[in-house]
Amino acid sequence: MSQSRVVHNQWSSRLAFLMAAVGSAVGLGNIWKFPYITGEYGGGAFVLVYLLCVAFIGIPVMMAEILLGRRGRRSPINTMRELAAAERASPVWGLVGWGGVVAGFLILSFYSVVAGWALDYVLKAALGAFDGLNGQSAGALFQSLTDSPRRLLFWHSVFMVMTMVVVANGVRSGLERLVTWLMPMLFLLLALLVGYAMAAGDFARGWHFLFDFDFARVFQACDAAGQCHFTAEPLLVAMGHSFFTLSLGMGAIMVYGSYMPREASIAGSTVMIAVADTLVALMAGLAIFPLVFANGLQPASGPGLVFVSLPIAFGAMPGGQLFGTLFFVLLVFAAWSSSISLVEPAVAWLSENRRMSRGRASLLVGGLAWFLGIGSALSFNLWSGDAYKVFGKTIFDLKDFLTTNIMLPLGGLAIALFAGWAVGRRLSEEELAMRSPRMYGLWRFSIRYMAPGGIVLVFLNAIGVV
Ligand code: TRP
Fold first, then answer.
1. In a domain, 101, yes or no
2. Is the distance from the beta carbon of residue 250 to the nearest atom of ligand 1 less than 6 Å?
3. Domain membership flag for residue 121
4. pLDDT tens column, 166-187
5. How much is the average pLDDT of 150-168?
């Protein structure tokens, strides 16, 4: 029998679950990361692979996470363990929950540093620091931030405290209020920015960059001497990003699902979350790339892309001080509602098993993530040299690569296998409660064959087997 307390917390409504899940999905992944990796991996074909992964792997896996969470009604660690016991599967499945907790810490420890950049840029925007920026001075402005360990650590700390305050207050009172008005506003402002990019940027070029599928160019890596060879890395990164942007593979959506009311539709919610998340990412791309090209910036200029391209636009547009401030405020909010879900599995487990108050659990978890984050902040300055690199990557890049491209897809693979093979058909059929048996059949096929097959193929491809 279980020794853990059931999490009785529940969202107040179906809409609240939806908002929270969209809040978790939409974040820096959409606005900061998607444009910058798309720029790095050459555009269109990369975008196409990412979209295919969202549709064919992300959606079935998200449904699996929600259904397992809602059936288990506990933290992911205990949900996996107890469902495994109830379905006579191996207790080893509990490791999926643990892996998720570790991944959550690692992700938050670099996520928080980037959210800190956004906090710094709120101030910059409000003080009019963007006035008259051009490509060069915007780059220098960003660099002067990342050069400073003290400022990065300061903002990283501020963001971590913000996250922990909401987590300590519990998902209902803390999070619901935060996200219900936030998402629509972010959406509106992004639409406005796309409009500006249409008017003032090189929109056609941005559009073609995002949507022309030039596979030959994307799957080719060229060295300094101009020698080119095939590379599967974009495939791995696009798949990894589909997990990252949907918050999948580490139990975040599972734990949110455990607070979901019985009567809400899992399939319907999943589709809405995936569509909203994808729209925000594409809108961010459509706002940013036209400005990148119009201002002579490089699409492949790395993690600073958003923080360099948009300030130029804000500095030039009428009302830019207001819109710029608003934009970075909203970006902070989007990051905030995402970061919460990164630690919720750990905090839920601590309050179930260790009978810790949410306040104490948050303090513990936040303290650890903050500590791990120091390395991410220093990756841009004191520890940016080769002496501090592992496999040619800074600590920041390494944590990002390891979690996004390895741990999340592995977690997703395990969740798919668990929901499709280890757990009986009756459980998933009952929990998904889909009106059409054909649709259920489609999901079951996807979770048993398509999603695991896709993930394994991409992995094999990445290590050069296929
Ligand atoms: N999806 C969020 C984003 O795009 C980040 C995030 C929140 C996340 N929770 C997660 C990523 C869980 C992976 C797993 O910004």
1. yes
2. yes
3. yes
4. 899 886 666 677 777 788 888 9
5. 96
Mutate to test the pocket of ligand 1, among 167, 244, 282 (most ligand atoms within 8 A of CB): 244
Say yes or no to pLDDT of 3 above 50.
no
- Residue whose CB lies within 8 A of the most ligand 1 atoms, among 102, 182, 341, for a mutation test: 341
- Which atom of ligand 1 lies at the shortest distance from residue 403's CA? 13
In a domain, 402, yes or no: yes
**226-264 pLDDT tens trace:** 788 778 889 999 999 999 999 999 999 999 999 888 888
Q: Supply the pTM of this predicted model.
A: 0.94
For residue 278 and ligand 1, the question of a CB distance below 6 A is answered with no
115: CA distance to ligand 1 center in Å? 13
Closest CA to ligand 1's atom 12: 247
Q: What is the pLDDT of residues 268-281, one digit of tens each?
A: 999 999 999 999 99
Residue 63 amino acid letter:
M
Residue nearest to atom 8 of ligand 1 (CA): 247
Looking at residue 86, which CATH number applies to its domain? 1.20.1740.10
CB of 99 closer than 6 angstroms to any ligand 1 atom: no
Q: Is 297 in the pocket of ligand 1 (CB under 6 A)?
A: no
Give residue 55's domain range.
14-462
pLDDT value at 2 more than 50: no
How confident is the model over 17-59, as pLDDT tens digits?
888 899 999 999 999 999 999 999 989 999 999 999 999 999 9
Q: What is the number of domains present in the chain?
A: 1
User: 366: pLDDT confidence band, cut at 50, 70 and 90?
Assistant: very high
**Beta carbon of 377 within 6 Å of any ligand 1 atom:** no
359 falls within a domain: yes
Question: Using a 6 Å cutoff on CB, does residue 341 contact ligand 1?
Answer: yes
* Ligand 1 site-directed mutation target among 50, 65, 330, 342, most atoms within 8 Å of CB: 342
Distance of CA 222 from the midpoint of ligand 1 (Å): 31
Instruction: Compute, in angstroms, the gap from residue 451 CA to the centroid of ligand 1.
Output: 19
